Amino acid sequence: MSRFWSPQIAELSPYVPGEQPQSRNLIKLNTNEMPFGPSPRALEAISACADDSLRLYPDPASTRLCKAFADVQGIRASQVFVGNGSDEVLAHTFRALFQPTAPLLFPDISYSFYPVYARFFDLNYQTVPLNADFEVELADYHRENGGIIFPNPNAPTGILTPLSRIAALLADNPDTVVVVDEAYVDFGGESATALIADYPNLLVVQTLSKSRALAGLRVGAAFGHEDLIEGLSRVKNSFNSYPLGRLSEAGAVAALEDADWFERSRTMVIRNREMLSKGLGGLGFEVLPSAANFVFARHPSEPALELQSALRQRDIIVRHFSQARIDQFLRISVGTEEHCAALLEALQEIIAG
Ligand code: PMP
Questions:
Q1: What pLDDT, on a 0 to 100 scale, did the predictor assign at position 309?
Q2: Does residue 130 carry a pLDDT above 90?
Q3: Does ligand 1 come within 6 angstroms of the Cβ of 151?
Q4: Which of 13, 195, 198, 253 is most buried (most C-beta within 10 Å)?
């Protein structure tokens, strides 16, 4: 607390991201990054762009990147908004598109940035409990609200909500914005972007941090009706006109154009996820059905915090959340085949010991 802070700052409870350790000799399975590097075409594009043109500001509208996203999604460039990571896109969404007159709704077990943004932007919110199987129960969202947001697949559970239920929610909730946060959709989900044409209140948010292996570049996007995109642009242009640098835009465009790399990489992650889930099941873990690049698992007798610290001693880091109902779970990002094998071997030793 400093006497120089504005009054609101002392009241904030900021989001705490997963640890980014300095040491490289760790098996890092704690923040859902890809275990291998991005498309070589993205790296070439970034290098090619590192020249004297960096003295110039980037295109404030990131026109090429909006077009590249639109081509991948089968929508118009005018239906795309881009930002500095999907976290920034989400922040602008909270500011631009949620109404303060009724509570914003999101799952009680979900991305922990949502309550942070809600408080930051002075929005009322209510959390809606996941059902007994840890699923997002969209039938429970049919009530007065100032907006609805949930990840699909959900984080940290990895569980997918079928598109048919999302369409039913949209049909029943035409007056406020519904945001589907698809950070992990490429690992087994079906995107709600196909529903944009039918529902002007739908915003789909995606990121290049996961399935394109570009968490370090900070590129996220939103897809929706032109009116929603214009709302986001108004906030962005009142905050930072140039959220994406020249290198980010060039790398992102090339990554989106590399369909072969994308297919190969996500297929590998899905294959490793199935191997990891099976291995954990063999060690007695209950593993929630994951459509993401991580699994959420608990052991019937080994306390999660003890497992986490025993793994850490073996240079493997995974994520734990101290929240009711999920405090016996570990969230484990899907690594390479070798990472997954090392994790399973370490867990086997820990449990046997
Ligand atoms: N949404 C969800 C559900 C996430 O887990 C994350 C990653 N922490 C994000 C959004 C933000 O990702 P980024 O800012 O890297 O695009």
A1: 98
A2: yes
A3: yes
A4: 253
Long-range contacts: 41-46, Cβ < 8 Å, 24+? 41/254, 41/255, 41/257, 41/258, 41/261, 42/212, 42/214, 42/217, 42/251, 42/252, 42/254, 42/255, 42/258, 43/251, 44/254, 45/250, 45/251, 45/253, 45/254, 46/217, 46/247, 46/250, 46/251, 46/254
Quick one: what percent of the chain has pLDDT higher than 70? 100
Q: Which atom of ligand 1 is nearest to the CA of 209?
A: 15
Q: Where are the alpha helices (DSSP H) in 106-245?
A: 113-120, 163-172, 226-236
Residues 121 and 113: their CA atoms lie apart, in Å, by 12
pTM comes to 0.97
Q: Is the CB of 85 under 6 A from ligand 1?
A: yes
Q: Is the CB of 217 inside a 6 Å radius of any atom of ligand 1?
A: no
Q: Is 207 in the pocket of ligand 1 (CB under 6 A)?
A: yes
Average confidence score pLDDT of the chain:
97
